[in-house]
Amino acid sequence: MSPARPGGADHLRDAAARAAREAADEVYRGILARAPEHDIDPELSRVRAVLELLGDPQRAFRSVHLTGTNGKTSTARMVERLLREHGLRTGRFTSPHLTRVNERIAIDGEPISDERFVEVWQDVAPYVHMVDARSAERGEPRLSFFEVFVVMAYAAFADAPVDVAVVEVGMGGRWDATNVLDAEVAVITPVAMDHERYLGHSLVEIASEKVGIVKDGATLVLAQQTEDVDGVVLTAAAERGARVVREGVDVSVVERQVAVGGQLVALRGMGGVYTDVYLPLHGAHQAHNALLALVATEALLTGGAALDGDVVGAAFADATSPGRLEVVRSSPTVIVDGAHNPAGTEALVAGVEEAFAFQRLVGVVGVMADKDPEGMLSVLEPVLDEVVVTQASSERALDVDDLAEIAVEVFGEDRVHVAPRLPDAIDVAVQRAEGEVERGAGVLVTGSILLVAEARVLLGRD
Fold first, then answer.
1. Deepest in the core among 74, 177, 189, 447, taking most CB within 10 A?
2. Between 8-32 and 114-137, two packed helices, what is the crossing angle to 10 degrees?
3. How many Å apart are CA 315 and CA 305, to the nearest integer?
4. Contact, 448 vs 397, CB < 8 A?
5. Residue ranges of E strands in 197-325
6. Which residues pair with 364 in a beta bridge?
7. What does the alpha-carbon distance between residue 327 and residue 337 come to, in Å, rounded to a whole number?
8. Using DSSP, how many helices (H) and how many strands (E) does the chain show?
9. CB distance 424 to 432 below 8 Å
10. What's the rounded Cα separation, in Å, for the pair 335 and 358?
């Protein structure tokens, strides 16, 4: 008998994995050729038409639907983790992705495989093309990038099958492609100014779009909002006969204290107070996200009665939120955070000041052209000793020279450095941080989720 060739099985597995990745990448490139996800068309008929041809897979599972300006992904991840700890099979749809597009569609907490990604596309493609053809006949656009992903997610969830899907909107709510769901529970995280071009130029206008995910008779879990936003949301919820559970009125974060690697919190849900809950995430905003996730889970599973405290504790202790106040390197400490508007940046700064004792902190900042760079940089200025401006490798990124001009106005010329390429920007920041202090130096990469995604890959978090 001939001896087994060393590494033969491993070689075959590696070759199969490479082939699967190449096939998934090819599918992704094809979907990317469609209208980008930030180029929205306020119309749900295309998604509805494809799903109807597929047998309406979105009706095959229960769902929790989340919108808001900041905190959606973190809250969605915590809802999903709580449901999974209760023994339910889950689907999770979030966006954008950090490393691989597969992350957007997760089953039982794990991104679907490259093989499954291709299979799902092959399952839905004939129906997507059919609706595209109908649209073309009417002189209307074909399904967008994001609409295709919504269809793929709902098809994958129904096929799994999952018990519950946790779905984050792409943008807004009323006209978001995800809003073909009839979710029993809706969550609205804090509403702030963002995506004004698409959602409106006031909080009232933005809130009017976001409350569009609340269905007749559903339960709405509502984060603390400004008075104007509360008025819009509560009026719309009343018109739809929705039950509203309000943070600060019906439920609350009772207590929180900094702990190693995160925080210890006490949360008052609908069913009672859950004490000594360890959350391995930094920042007060994550405690409030955890509260929303807890209450949404209570609403779905018990209608508001208490959940088992040990199950809740185990789920939260295992919570993760990549790219959100995430430490990706030590010596010096490098933190990445996807804050991309002033409100998100305020939460980031508060979290950094609370959880880290930096003697010197240097920022690496790149933003998208449709954002508020001056607002974000103004919030960052008090906590950063210096800033290195850069840009993500996206056509949507604000030109580094334009960002540098704004940064100089906010920080002063002596505190601003320019490095168009992100690897160079991180190197400059590390040198500027370490060169001044022996210990307690840090680098913060922020301003754009796309920038954070690239930084995570560069620093080995892929």
1. 447
2. 20
3. 18
4. yes
5. 219-222, 243-246, 252-259, 262-268, 273-279
6. 388, 445
7. 9
8. 15, 17
9. no
10. 12
**DSSP 8-state secondary structure symbol assigned to residue 44:** -
Structural tokens at position 366: 């790149």
Query: Which tokens go with 226?
Result: 């400004």
- 219-232 in b/e form (b: 16+ CB < 10 A) is bbbbbbbeeebbeb
62 within 8 A of 300, measured Cβ to Cβ: yes
Stated as kind and residue range, the H or E segment containing 348 is helix 342-355
Q: Per residue of the chain (462 residues), give pLDDT as tens.
A: 444 455 567 766 788 889 999 999 999 999 999 987 656 677 899 999 999 999 999 999 999 999 998 999 999 999 999 999 999 999 999 998 998 999 999 999 999 999 999 999 999 999 999 999 999 999 999 999 999 999 999 999 999 999 999 999 998 899 999 999 999 999 999 998 765 455 666 889 899 999 999 999 999 999 999 999 999 999 999 999 999 999 999 999 999 999 999 999 999 999 999 999 999 999 999 999 999 999 999 999 999 999 999 999 999 999 999 999 999 998 899 999 999 999 999 999 999 999 999 999 999 999 999 899 999 999 999 999 999 999 988 888 999 999 999 999 999 999 999 999 999 999 999 999 988 776 799 999 999 999 999 999 999 876
User: 16: helix, coil or strand?
Assistant: helix
Tokens of 82: 């709580």
Please, are residues 407 and 364 in contact by the beta-carbon 8 Å criterion?
no
Claim: this prediction has a pTM higher than 0.90: yes
φ, ψ of residue 296 to 5 degrees: the values are -60, -40
Backbone phi and psi for residue 132, each to the nearest 5 degrees, phi listed first: -55, -45
Q: Contact at 8 Å (CB) between 265 and 313?
A: no
